[in-house]
Amino acid sequence: MRVTCTVNGKQQVVDDVWEGESLLYLLRERVGLPGSKNACEQGACGSCTVYLDDLPTCACLVAAGQVQGREIRTVEGLADGDQLGPIQEAFVECGAIQCGFCTPGMVMQAHDLLERVDNPSDTQIREALAGNLCRCTGYEKILDAVRLAASRRAGSIATSPRPVSL
User: What is the pLDDT of residue 137?
Assistant: First the structure.
């Protein structure tokens, strides 16, 4: 079957999509956007999170045929060309990237949270990221990154909220 959808603002036409193909496979293997990771393939880890019509969705759980005519935004779509988006920058600056496998899903969920909540509490951040697993157990730096992105978004801080020890 042919699937036509919009990915990161650009129309994509993908031919020969088979019935069991997932949106994740379509994005990674056919459209060439490897940012969303293939980890559990059961919607349990959140590494494949993308926006589907502006709602965070596990791309591994969506059949590619279901995205006909719909809009998808991947972690690559949060950047502005070669310039990382503010949340992506905050993850880099806070060292919230260990092996990097969970990072795309964490970034997408953090982006969604900050779109809805200007200054989230730690509880709100933890709840927003609850469906995303980090196997490196680096959650504290991930929380720091979300806090930093939120602070910058609010215009209240220009540098890392965590003091640097020498």
Answer: 74
